[in-house]
Amino acid sequence: MTISSSTTLLPKRRIGTKGPMASVLSLGSWHIYDRMDFSDSVAMVREAADHGLNMFDVGVYGFPGHQPPVFTDVLFSAIIRAAGVERDQYLLSSKLWLEGYPEQSLRAQLENALFRAGTDHADIAVLGDLRKDGIDLRRLVLDLAELEESGLLGCWGVNNWSAGNIQALLDIAAEEGVNGPQMAQLKYSLSRRSIADGEPFAALFRQGLTMQASDVMEGGILAGKLNPGREVGRDPGSIRDRIIDSFPGIKALSSDLGTTPAQLCIAFTLTHPANATTLFGASSVEQLRSNLAAVELVERVGSDELRRLAEPFWADKGVVSPEGP
Which ranges constitute the DSSP H helices of 6-153? Predict the structure, then answer.
């Protein structure tokens, strides 16, 4: 596959058993559009769509007064229109946060997110981390089913939940005769593999759950930004120093394969059989094109060989429980 050709489209995989067909790569928005020139953002989104990237992850990040200002999702609503991408040509992945639930309803959150994103429905909503005890999971499942029934939501998934809690969601959904989670957004990279590659999640994947690989470059560290100047995600297992120390080897392997560390990071995630789509961020057309080329790397080297070559960089092996958070 020649990614540089504007006529070549990314492959698609189904999200779960009830979800839509998503491109194997999806574009995130974590304050990216806040930092880009508007015309550059439009060009990048148009380029992504031309290559068949059809899934855009857009959330309401933070709250009024938060720094950076909370408007990257509002910018997206203008960017996607200016890029000429019609609503039926892309999938919107939104976020729902549980810190204020159930006092703040999921419906109110979603309606606000859709208003800001300039649309009337989300194709998938990803529930944020489960940070507190006592949430009524049955009520949660039924609230989400109601949003699906109302047409505001196509399907839903979770972000960095444990395998046990996801199984509980699936069991409740089966008992209630409604749809359960279709996707688990998980940290998955050359360095962080213990959860997604472990048996607890393998059992979930056998039931039809799929994965969205996220944080695939460890906030840019695995791409060579060893001292990132922006917020980096949590560090399960406290292995970040080991990840930084592994970069020279990753760079050397990338050179041997005729690719870049960023492309290698993305390509590795595509070798996981349950990974429906890999989430990444890009802040220029050139960076986007480079990331898209990761698909060609998988085809050229092969999934099994990439996984074999990546084995020495598995930093959380035996450190992080495969059960998850």
Answer: 32-35, 38-50, 72-82, 106-117, 137-150
Is the pLDDT at 291 greater than 50? The verdict is yes
Structure tokens at 18: 């009830």
Residue 120 makes CB contacts below 8 A (sequence gap 6+) with: 114, 151, 152
**According to DSSP H, which parts of the chain are helical?**
32-35, 38-50, 72-82, 106-117, 137-150, 163-176, 199-206, 240-256, 261-269, 285-292, 294-301, 303-310
User: What is the arithmetic mean of pLDDT over 60-82?
Assistant: 83
Residue 109 zone, left/alpha/beta (φ > 0; ψ -120 to 50; rest): alpha
Contact by Cβ (8 Å): 188, 233: no
Give the span between the Cα atoms of 294 and 288, in whole angstroms: 10
Higher per-residue confidence, 65 vs 61: 61
- CA proximity to 270, closest of 18, 23, 8: 23
Q: What is the pLDDT of residues 120-167, one digit of tens each?
A: 999 999 999 998 889 999 999 999 999 999 999 999 999 999 999 999
- Residue 183 near residue 126, CB atoms below 8 Å: yes
Length of the chain: 325
Strand 153-159 versus strand 122-127 pairing type: parallel
Under 8 Å between Cβ of 209 and 166: yes
Distance of alpha carbon 211 from alpha carbon 184, whole angstroms:
5
285 contacts: CB under 8 Å, gap ≥ 6? 40, 43, 44, 47
Largest CA distance in the chain: 54
3-state secondary structure of 226: coil
In DSSP terms, 159 is beta-bridged to: 185
- The DSSP output letter for 117 is H
